């Protein structure tokens, strides 16, 4: 009776074959991993940058912004404006205000009241302008063709521009010397110079703080306040 071969022994593989298959399986897995790594490297080389498209506030597509390392730049919120140089503003021109100083000029048979411009810089008040004009009038005569009948040494003690008119206060020298014609002439010089900025302003004339009612030894009467219109009317009546 012959022995029947053990079926289990036929299913066993030689040790050498098993070792060879194992090596092949290991080698095949390494190859698959290698090809997978090469594919990843190739893809990263073909597209190393991400391109991010943006839109403006009206929905129009903006040029793409490129970011390295796979990061997209945020869309620009506003266009960059070029810097502008600020030109320095020129200094405002100095404006001169003009008043007038009144002197007498010899025109042959009589003396004529003549206005001379008086300039001050912008920013001075009307009060300061008139004060400067009268102080100049009392100081000296600028031209040999002009003359003043105001007594030498007369000083301006104060000048105030008030709602009711212009208040002029002179020193006592204003009332000294001369006849009635000289008295009227000096009053005219003060009156017209004080009202050169506003010809319709009334003027209150005082001497040493006291309102002047009569002037000179002849007792020339002065109606206060004085105005140009009233003074001219009185002069016509006397003629």
Question: Which features would summarize this protein structure in a list?
Answer:
239 residues; alpha+beta; four-stranded mixed beta sheet; three-stranded antiparallel beta sheet; 5 helices; disordered N terminus
Alpha carbon gap, first and last residue: 187 Å
What value does the Rg take, in angstroms? Answer: 56 Å
The secondary-structure class comes to: alpha+beta
Classify the beta-strand content into a percent band: 25-35%
Query: How much is the average pLDDT?
Result: 73
Outline the biggest β-sheet. 4 strands, mixed
Query: How many DSSP H or I helices?
Result: 5
Oligomer: single chain
The shape, in one word, is: elongated
In total, how many beta strands?
A: 11
Give the secondary structure arrangement, pairings included.
Elements: H1 7-11, H2 15-46, E1 50-55, E2 61-67, E3 96-106, E4 111-121, H3 126-139, E5 146-147, E6 156-162, E7 165-170, H4 180-194, E8 203-207, E9 210-211, E10 214-215, E11 220-221, H5 228-238
Parallel strand pairs: 7-8
Antiparallel strand pairs: 1-2, 3-4, 3-5, 6-7, 8-9, 10-11
Overview of the structural elements:
- With 239 residues, the protein is an alpha+beta fold.
- The chain has a domain at 96-238.
- Helices cover 32% and strands 26% of the residues.
- The chain has helices at residues 7-11, 15-46, 126-139, 180-194, 228-238; strands at 50-55, 61-67, 96-106, 111-121, 146-147, 156-162, 165-170, 203-207, 210-211, 214-215, 220-221.
- β3 (96-106) and β4 form a beta hairpin.
- The longest helix has 32 residues, at 15-46.
- It is elongated, with a radius of gyration of 56 Å.
């Amino acid at each position: 009776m012959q022995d029947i071969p053990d079926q289990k022994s036929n299913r066993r593989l030689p040790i050498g074959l098993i070792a060879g298959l194992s090596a092949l399986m290991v080698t095949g897995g390494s190859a698959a991993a290698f090809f997978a790594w090469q594919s990843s490297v190739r893809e990263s080389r073909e597209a190393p940058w991400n391109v991010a498209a943006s839109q403006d506030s009206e929905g129009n597509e903006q040029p793409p912004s490129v970011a390295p390392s796979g990061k997209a730049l945020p869309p620009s919120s506003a266009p960059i404006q070029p810097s502008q140089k600020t030109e320095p503003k020129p200094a405002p021109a100095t404006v001169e205000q003009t008043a007038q100083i009144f002197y007498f000029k010899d025109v042959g048979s009589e003396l004529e009241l003549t206005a001379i411009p008086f300039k001050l810089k912008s920013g001075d008040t009307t009060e300061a302008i008139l004060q400067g004009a009268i102080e100049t009038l009392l100081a000296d005569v600028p031209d040999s063709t002009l003359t003043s009948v105001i007594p030498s040494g007369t000083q301006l003690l104060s000048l105030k521009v008030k709602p009711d008119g212009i208040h002029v206060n002179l020193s006592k020298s204003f009332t000294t010397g001369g006849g009635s014609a000289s008295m009227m002439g000096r009053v005219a010089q003060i009156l017209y110079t004080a009202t050169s900025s506003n010809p319709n302003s009334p003027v209150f004339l005082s001497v040493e703080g006291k309102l002047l009612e009569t002037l000179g030894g002849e007792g020339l009467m002065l109606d206060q306040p004085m105005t140009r219109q009233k003074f001219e009317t009185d002069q016509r009546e006397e003629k």
